[in-house]
Amino acid sequence: MSAVSGIARRAGRRLLSSLPALLGVLVLTFLLMRVLPGDPAVFFASGPNAGQAEIEAIRHQMGLDRPVPEQLVRYLGDVATGNLGRSMTTGQPVLADLRQRLPASLELTVTALVLALALALPLGIAAALRPGSAVDHAVRFLCALGVCVPTFVSGLLLIYVFYYLLGLAPDPTGRIDVFASSPPDITGFYLVDFLLVGDLEGWRTAAGQLVLPALTMALFVLAPLARITRASMLAVLGADFVRTARSLGLPRRRIVVTYALRNAILPVLTIAGIVFSTMLGANVLVEKVFSWPGVASYALDALLSSDYAPVQGFVLLMASLFVLVNLTVDVLYGLADPRISVE
Amino acid sequence: MNVLSQPLARPARPSTLRHAAFVLRHNPVTALAAAGAAGLCLVALLSPWLVPYDPVASDVSVALQAPSAAHWAGTDQLGRDVLSRIIAATRLDLAIALSAVGLSFAAGAVVGALCGYAGGRLDRVVGRVVDVLMAFPLFVLAMALVAALGNRVENIVVATAIINLPFYVRFARAEVNVRRDAGYVEAARAGGEGHVGVVLRFLLPNVLPAMAVQISLNLGWAILNAAGLSFIGLGVRPPTPEWGILVAEGARFITTGKWWLVAFPGLALMLAVLCFNLLGDGLRDILDPRMRT
Amino acid sequence: MARAPAGGRGRGPPSPSPLECDLLDLRRDHTQEGIGVTKTSIQARGLAAAALLAASLGTVGAARAQSRAETLRYVTGAAVNTLDPTMPGTTREAFAISLSTYDRLVTFGRKKLGDSFVFDLDSVRGELAERYEVSPDGLTLTFVLRPDAKFQDGTPVTAEDVKWSLDRAVSAKSLAAPQLLTGSLTSPDQFKVVDPRTFQVTLPKPDRLALPNLATVYAIIINARAAKAHATPEDPWAQGWLKDHAVGSGAYSVDVFKPGEQVVLRRSEAWTGAAPDKPAGFKRIIAQTIPDPATRANLVEKGDADIVIDLQANDAQALKERGKLKVIATPQFNALTLISFNTRLPPFDKLEVRQAVASALPYDAMFKAALFGRGKPLFGATWGEGDPKPVFPVPQPVTLDLDKARTLLAAAGLPDGFSTTFSFNLGQAATAEPMAALIRESLEKIGVKVEIQKLPDAQMSTQISEKKLPFFTEGIVAWLPSPDYFYRNFYTGNQRWNYSSVDDPVINELANKARFERDAAKYDEDARALNLRHLALMPQIPIWQPNQDAVMAPSVEGYTYQFHRQVDYRDLSRK
What we know:
The structure holds 3 protein chains of 3 kinds.
Chain A: H1 2-35, H2 40-44, H3 52-62, H4 68-80, H5 94-129, H6 134-147, H7 151-165, H8 190-196, H9 200-237, H10 240-247, H11 252-282, H12 284-289, H13 295-304, H14 308-336
Chain B: H1 16-26, H2 28-50, H3 82-118, H4 120-135, H5 138-149, H6 153-179, H7 183-190, H8 195-231, H9 243-251, H10 260-287
Helix pairs in contact in B: 1-2, 1-10, 2-3, 2-10, 3-4, 3-6, 3-8, 3-10, 4-6, 5-6, 6-8, 7-8, 8-9, 8-10, 9-10
Chain C: H1 18-28, H2 32-37, H3 39-43, H4 45-53, H5 57-69, E1 71-76, H6 92-101, E2 106-113, E3 116-126, E4 129-134, E5 140-145, H7 159-171, H8 176-181, E6 191-195, E7 198-202, H9 210-213, H10 224-228, H11 239-242, E8 252-258, E9 262-267, E10 284-289, H12 293-301, E11 307-308, H13 313-322, E12 326-331, E13 335-341, H14 351-358, H15 363-370, E14 375-377, H16 402-411, E15 419-425, H17 429-444, E16 449-455, H18 457-465, E17 471-477, H19 483-491, H20 505-515, H21 520-537, E18 540-552, E19 556-557, E20 560-561, E21 573-574
Parallel strand pairs in C: 1-10, 3-20, 15-16
Antiparallel strand pairs in C: 2-3, 4-5, 5-7, 6-7, 8-9, 9-10, 11-18, 12-18, 13-17, 13-18, 14-18, 19-21
């Protein structure tokens, strides 16, 4: 009981202490966007005859006719009341856009991470069991190979081979086949929602759409995960309790899986947390290539058209997720290893 | 990827060289990577003399030709020789990567070391700034910086350096912090060495080797980052050849069947990133033998 | 969204046909049949369906195939961002949607241009109007509405709705007002309800573009009652609500609207606006945003998409060569690509400098390498008797002649050349980037050093608007491509679209005079004079009109190049 409340206190403290960083992110993004040489009002007053009057009207509507410090204060006030502004690109409130698009990004990232872990753990373990062997080198090489191709290239190549040439993959046009119906909006995660309504066929369609983009991202993050698995396993395999287990003649499989892996998983978890938050922000290009309706491609479009509000909202969202993921990892750590909570 | 495993490395030992030789012998992959990286640097240095054609000279009459004896890697949309462009790009890409990583390394080491040594208010303020940077989605930050500053080479370098910075600052800070009360530091202080001298002459030399390992890994990442920026149109200015731009342009021709436009620049880029990554891995083993046992 | 109006015009079915009904329901529920309609199940039917759907397989498969055949899947790089086309920032794709969901009073006919059909500015026919009349003095336009015209909620379209809609167009803060201004439509006082079916527009001057303006996407007729219910004191024209809700009388109603992803339209069976007594050709339209151009090419080639119009020139070229698909290439005759000089910034304020650059551009190489020859060149002409023609743009007598360029530079007092930047838009990089590289190389030969600047779209438009760019390439479009319209909008005034910032008394006077010229011969004379003046001043160089390469499945018919450079879905049907 006291352990749980300790963790809760700790989590609360961590959350509070991350608030200044979030504020910093907010202010920095705001200023960065104002430094952008593009004037969104000019860009969006794109009608064939839009003149200065229309531009001024849009500037007024976006609040750009006020001094920057006042804009900042207003913006912070808006954010505090949950209003992230309106996107000129989609014409919708940013909050609504993000809420609709975040599940798509999360679903893709989680799938990619699970896929990457499913590949990285066996590879890392195999490498750790015979350090310096051909297997070890092969694993290292394989992982390095994955991380050396830009995601937009691997994505386009996967599409070309599996969709265009072989016809194995469904058309790379978003989260679900366009002729199929999307599931009712329960969690926003298609895989979960299809299961909830018991629509297995729909589930398979959605999963099919996920395979290629998730694979593209997974390949890219294989290296750090496999590397940490290997290192962590090596350390544990050399530990006394593993030696003891060995000397007792326990089966090798049991030693590796039950004793070693369980103890080696914590550092992997930490890195997986970092990888996850990095991936969320870095899947801009994957979302673009696969027409994935996620938050990152949304932010990219907004950035190129100097549409301030969506970019600011996106960065704030990513920073908050970063804090949350770190916190989660922290809490998991605390649960798994009570020694850590004793500060 | 900017993900670091493990708390790294102890200070370099006197037997480092012998150990390095040992590791290289037993780790052919690292040896190959080192050779590859050296080769790339050589190509970069000699590129003006290696190119068979002027990399920016167009000749529309031979546009989009498949690889041949005259053009080993074919020609692009404007009839420019792809091989020459790849070779010429090597210099620019390595320069971007080296200067970006070098910049963040130098700045990170100094700032981090000062914070770790001095602690107090400076440390807290810098810590906050680093927290803010860490919480940013890095690629989007790089995009925004380049978009705001203009897509010139120096701005791409700065943007890449800034997104690498937090790591180096944290690392240097942590390592210095651990050592600031070590015996040899106390001894130096007792011997009349000023604070700056202690940091520069005694602490940094002990921290740098461990940090240096990360340089090689980050080099590969910096190249990929520049390529990504090129793909969304925020790369270096045309017609300057740069791998990312070549790949991004070539990717437009995948469906048209002009495979050489993406394949050869892509291979060059892959090779470079691969070499730097494997080399970084190997270097880590050399500097931190514990990782291998 | 509202269902199709019940029983409109006496012959439409009282409710959607049984098949359509099924499909609609399937869209919403997740029944067993719903599963059967998904595409993957058909692909995998050998595997899974045997157990699941053995008995009904045949019928479901056929239904699915039929529903696919009755659906038009259109893929595009840009997003549909609003259902109200007057909103600032509306994309072309959104214009296309609004053209189908709303009706206007009138619409353009079509004519043959080469092998393809294009809209015809000179033939304006009724859309919501059964007929219209222009008074002899050209000052009064009278429209009589179709008796059977109904909004999608089943209520009849009245002259009151028309008045409210056009009042909104000229009064609300939107992009409609500045457009309608080009047709002398500026105030609600000009719009009068004569009786429930008769509507009158009065003009201060006989403006030749008044009627065509009523056919553009901004002059939509909105269900006033439905819209007014959502108007507020701050938003009297319901602009906020109409962004997400289409309440028109058009050929299609909106089923799904996901900004930035896709829009699904469903046919209104009662609509017979275009061809007499026939609804639109497709039952369902899916307009989907696919940002990567190579993927769009893949989709249409694999038959997964039915039509795409914004492929890269090289992909369109390759698809045409492969011969499996229908490629209709129409030079965008109401648009053109320009190389512009800022005539206020030195050294481009000197005529000789502009002429020197015009003689140093590698036109042929650019046309072949950057555009893959997919367009209509506007360079290399020789003007003889009867030239220039009274249209805009006309092919220009400019060619690559480096010696002439050097002489002109020397005459300008810059024998050693100068340095400048050449800018283009990120969105046009596919053609502009190779173009820029060629220009840079060619100008280097006459001593002009060019630095290439690739700018994100918003930055480019801002810098153009602030007149900061010395030398750049951009495109212009006119929905109503008459010469005076081009010259007034793109060559006069201190505004963004006057790229070269010319302020020439001759152009100003001629363009404004031609606007109200009712004598065709005199109008042509003015247009010729304008074209001559353009060449003499050389404020910018028209280089080509890029093709709109519409690549479509061989079964798709009826494609017409439209003024808004989008597909008008109502034109299309499947063979």
